[in-house]
């Protein structure tokens, strides 16, 4: 496996902006076998339990064939041969360069927008708005592009520097409450916030912090927009989450998830 040594500028960008774009993170030869498994998950040939296959637009009532954002949580748990793949290994080494210390892979996730899904909107949020608040903020969340991404197919967008704000922004459930839908929405002001899109080539990644505001628009193109997420956090953070019963599965108890958003509002 080839190493991916970061430049001083890349490390600086991560800490200053709350995210960084790392080009050519995986080779085509490394991407292909991962892509094959990815598509098996999307076609549900590799099954996952309950809501770990869901539509991230937040509508629990949609039938899978109508999903706008196909979301698979914890694929490496459901298909252990994914574990220790080249992406995981390279990302672990880069997370070490960015945030250091005793780190673990907290969760993995597949987030795909099929072609012609203008409502495949991933609402603005800070990841910590979805997670229990833990004392160690170190987080490096990787988003690997399996397709070229741009405005038309709903690329990720970040608010530069938002991870340095003293308070987490308020997060409100998109519909009803957390027992009825998963999606949270944070406030973003385009006049004040510095929004920057992440236009990626296939094989590029972005890496972001747990407090960096981000979201993405719908897919108005005839192309897919497929992302593969890996989040590295401190072993202490992961142990604290698990002690609460929080595993990043969308099958975690709804009352636990509802308590987290309530805490988010109080910050
Ligand atoms: O795929 C997207 O558009 C959003 C993904 C995301 O929110 C994340 O990786 O934290």
* Biggest β-sheet strands, sense, barrel: 7 strands, antiparallel
| Unique ligands | 2-oxoglutaric acid
As a whole number of angstroms, the C-alpha radius of gyration is 17 Å
Counting structural domains, the number is 1
Instruction: Give the class from helix and strand content and strand pairing.
Output: alpha+beta
Strand content: 15-25%
Oligomer: single chain
Biggest sheet, spatial arrangement of strands: 1-11-6-13-4-3-2
Quick recap:
With 267 residues, the protein is of the alpha+beta class. The chain is built from seven helices and 13 strands.
Task: Describe it.
The chain contains seven helices and 13 strands. The model has no long low-confidence stretch (mean pLDDT 94). The chain has a single domain (8-266), classed as Sandwich (Jelly Rolls). It is α+β, with helices and mostly antiparallel strands and 267 residues long. The protein starts with 7 loop residues before the first helix and ends with a helix. It has helices at residues 8-17, 28-42, 75-78, 86-99, 127-130, 235-244, 254-266; strands at 19-22, 53-55, 70-73, 103-113, 122-125, 139-145, 156-159, 171-173, 184-186, 195-197, 205-208, 214-216, 225-234. It has a seven-stranded antiparallel sheet. Strands 5-12-7-10 form a four-stranded antiparallel sheet. It has a two-stranded antiparallel ribbon with strand order 8-9. It is globular and about 45 Å long. It binds 2-oxoglutaric acid. The site of 2-oxoglutaric acid has 10 residues, from strand 6, strand 12 and strand 13.
